[in-house]
Specification:
Elements lengths: L1 H25 L1 E6 L7 H16 L4 E6 L9 H8 L4 E4 L23 H8 L2 H14 L1 E3 L4 E10 L17 E4 L3 H9 L3 E4 L5 H7 L4 E4 L1 H6 L8 E17 H6 L2 H35 L3 E3 L3 H13 L2 H4 L4 H9 L3
Parallel strand pairs: 1-2, 1-3, 6-7, 9-10
Antiparallel strand pairs: 3-9, 4-9, 5-8, 5-9
Helix pairs in contact: 2-10
């Protein structure tokens, strides 16, 4: 009887281990890479993403967030995501300019008239087709619409000795830009002298005079400390900027439908959270910057719009890569 009891207990133990084996096999460790500092809304959203993914999956999917460019610098992160060196990251359209050349058009000045206009487009069926094309050609799956990352303004240092009201006032001003053709074109479209500098090196570049200014949303300028080097803030509203949380396409396809559901829900919540942080910050930061002694300039925005339009019309080598049907769809969705 004792022998039978031991055999029964052994069988039960083995059965328990076998039944637990598939569950253990489903447990996965994922990494998320961002160049943003911990205080940045994108990084905060990534941490919420990680937290919610662990909760929704009951610990089966664990995601570790590496911020501040610990894993990859700006420009290298997109390639690393495509190659699967990191499973998840935040990314922008400029990362896919080689595989999907028309994606550079999303970094053209004044392509969107408002935040609502941009959100309307990035949550449309047109955008979903773009995301599918990126997944096919760049091996990166955009998880959903957009994280609103602020309306970009010009943040200029003490090196600029004049109040900037028009594009002509930006002549000779070294404006930091990401080292992508579409970003360089954006700087020129505004009338500035675009100077490529890595995002995490921008503060030092402004401090040392390597550049005379940079463009970003207000919350980003505060989180990264750029505001400390800013003498005048020029409210050009030249680009409603967005980023996306994304996953390597092969990793995405390796997930079960249930796992995809967990990832998608966590990503949706992170998108909404990060966007809300940006929007809330923008409402109060102008007053805060003004109290710091920064000159808040309301320029001739129509002059900037006309200058940008004329620039793109006179540079067909840039617009030749644009998808005019998508551009028309964007215009049709305007306010």
């Amino acid at each position: 009887m004792k022998h039978t009891f031991l055999k029964t207990m052994t069988a039960l133990a083995v059965g328990a281990m076998l039944s637990a084996a598939p569950l253990a096999a489903q447990e996965r460790e994922l990494t998320f890479s961002t160049i943003m500092v911990p205080e940045d809304p994108i990084a905060k959203g990534a941490r919420l993403f990680s937290e919610r993914l662990g909760e929704l999956s009951d610990g089966k999917l664990k995601m570790t967030v590496y911020d501040s460019g610990q894993l990859f610098s700006q420009g290298a992160g997109g390639d690393a995501l495509a190659r699967g060196q990191v499973q998840l990251a935040d990314t922008g359209m400029s990362s896919f300019s080689e595989q999907v050349p028309y994606s550079g058009m999303f970094i053209s000045a004044y392509i969107f008239e408002s935040v609502e206009h941009a959100e309307r487009f990035w949550n449309s069926d047109v955008a979903k087709k773009i995301f599918d094309e990126i997944a096919q050609k760049a091996n990166v799956r955009i998880l959903n619409g957009m994280v609103y990352y602020g309306t970009r303004q010009l943040s200029l240092s003490k090196n600029v000795d004049r109040t900037v009201m028009t594009p002509e006032d930006l002549k000779g001003v070294k404006l930091r830009m990401a080292n992508y053709p579409s970003w360089i074109a954006l700087g020129e479209a505004l009338g500035a002298d675009p100077t490529p500098v890595a995002f995490n090196e921008t503060y030092l570049a402004m401090q040392t005079g390597t550049v005379d200014g940079q463009d970003n949303g207000l919350t980003v300028s505060k989180a990264m400390g750029f505001v400390e080097q800013t003498k005048q803030l020029v409210l050009t509203d030249h680009l409603v900027w967005n980023l996306h949380y994304a996953i390597n396409e092969q990793v995405w396809q390796s997930l079960s439908d249930e796992e995809k559901g967990w990832v998608q829900q966590a990503a949706d919540e992170a998108h909404a959270y990060a966007s809300d942080l940006i929007k809330q910050g923008e409402q109060s930061l102008l007053d805060e910057f003004k109290a710091m002694g920064i000159e808040i300039v309301e320029p001739d925005k129509e002059a900037f719009i006309e200058h940008a339009r004329a620039y793109y019309e006179s540079h067909p080598e840039i617009t030749a890569q644009w998808d005019m049907e998508i551009l028309q769809a964007i215009r049709d969705m305007a306010d």
